[in-house]
Design goal:
globular, mainly alpha
Length: 282
C-alpha cells in the first residue's frame, strides 16, 4: 500500500531543492530548465508525478507554467535561452506536463503535433547531435527519446485510436527491435545491457521497467513476443510477495522513500500492477 506520509516526506525533500539552481521551481536565474544541480525543472515534474501531488499545488503549477512558457509557436520546446533545440527537450517537457495532467493544454497539444510531424525515418525520434561520431548504428532513432514520446502520447490518448493519428506502431517497433538488437543505437548510443536491465524508479530514463511500462499501453507491443520476453525479465525482479524491488535508483534521489535501493517500493509496485492490468485488455 502506498504510504501518503512517505509521499509527503519525499515531496518535502524535492521542494527543499527548488531554489538550488538560482531561481524558483528548479530553474536557473537565466531561465534554463534542464540543469540537474541537483535536479532540473523538467526532472522535478517527472518526480512529482509519482508522488500524488494535487494539480493545484503551487510548486507543481509554477514548474508547469515555466515549461508551458518554453513551448514555442512551432511546438518545439526551448529549455535554455541559447543553444540548439532538440527533440529530446520537447519529448521530456511534454511528458512531464502530460504526467501531471496537462495533456489537453493547447501548448502541450501544439508540442505533440510537432513531435508527430518530426519523426525520423524509422518512426521514432532522433536528435541530430553526434557525440559518438557518425557510425552505422547512429542511423536509427534514439530509444530514450522515443520512449519518452510514446509515454506522452499514451497519456494524451493517442495510443487508443485517436483520429489525430493513424498509427504509432512504427515507433513501438523501433523499441521492440532494440530488444533484439541490444547494441547501442542512435546518435546518443542507448543500448540494452546490464545497466538497462536493473530496475530504476521513478521513471526518468531508458531502462527495463520504464520500457515495459510504456510499451504495455500499446496493443502492438502487448501482442509481440519481444515485449513478453521483456515483461518476463521484469517479473523476475519481484520479491516473493510480488513487490517491485528498486535496483538502481538515481543517485540524486537515493534518500527518497519511494526508491530505496534493494528494497520494495509500493509506488513502483503500483506501476507494475498497472502493467498487468494493461495485459488484461486483450
Amino acid at each position: 500500500m502506498i504510504n501518503d506520509n512517505e509521499n509527503q516526506a519525499d515531496l518535502a525533500q524535492i521542494l527543499a531543492t527548488r531554489h538550488d539552481n538560482g531561481a524558483d521551481f528548479w530553474a536557473t536565474a537565466d531561465g534554463r530548465l534542464g540543469i540537474e544541480k541537483p535536479i532540473s525543472t523538467l526532472t522535478a515534474l517527472m518526480i512529482i508525478s509519482e508522488l500524488a501531488v494535487p494539480r493545484d499545488h503551487e510548486a507543481l503549477q509554477g514548474a508547469a507554467e515555466l515549461v508551458l512558457g518554453a513551448i514555442r509557436d512551432d511546438g518545439r520546446v526551448r529549455i535554455a535561452p541559447k543553444g540548439a533545440i532538440y527533440p529530446c527537450h520537447t519529448a521530456h517537457a511534454v511528458t512531464g506536463l502530460c504526467r501531471n495532467g496537462y495533456a489537453s493544454h493547447p501548448q502541450v497539444q501544439l508540442a505533440l503535433d510537432y513531435l508527430l510531424a518530426d519523426r525520423y525515418d524509422d518512426g521514432g525520434w532522433r536528435c541530430n547531435k553526434f557525440i559518438y561520431g557518425h557510425g552505422p548504428e547512429t542511423d536509427a532513432s534514439n530509444p530514450n527519446v522515443t520512449l519518452l514520446a510514446l509515454d506522452a502520447f499514451r497519456l494524451a490518448g493517442f495510443h487508443a485510436g485517436s483520429n489525430r493519428i493513424s498509427d504509432l506502431d512504427r515507433a513501438v517497433e523501433t523499441l521492440l527491435d532494440h530488444w533484439t538488437v541490444k547494441m547501442p543505437v542512435g546518435p546518443c548510443h542507448y543500448g540494452i545491457g546490464s545497466l538497462f536491465m536493473q530496475v530504476e524508479y521513478p521513471f526518468l530514463r531508458y531502462n527495463l521497467f520504464y520500457y515495459v511500462y510504456v510499451l504495455s499501453h500499446y496493443e502492438k507491443a502487448r501482442k509481440d513476443k519481444r515485449f513478453n520476453e521483456a515483461l518476463i525479465a521484469l517479473q523476475q525482479k519481484l520479491d516473493d510477495q510480488g513487490r517491485m524491488i528498486v535496483e538502481r535508483p538515481n543517485r540524486k534521489l537515493s534518500k527518497l522513500a519511494i526508491c530505496q535501493k534493494g528494497k520494495p517500493s509500493a509506488a513502483a509496485t503500483a506501476r507494475y500492477l498497472e502493467i498487468i492490468r494493461n495485459m488484461d485488455r486483450d
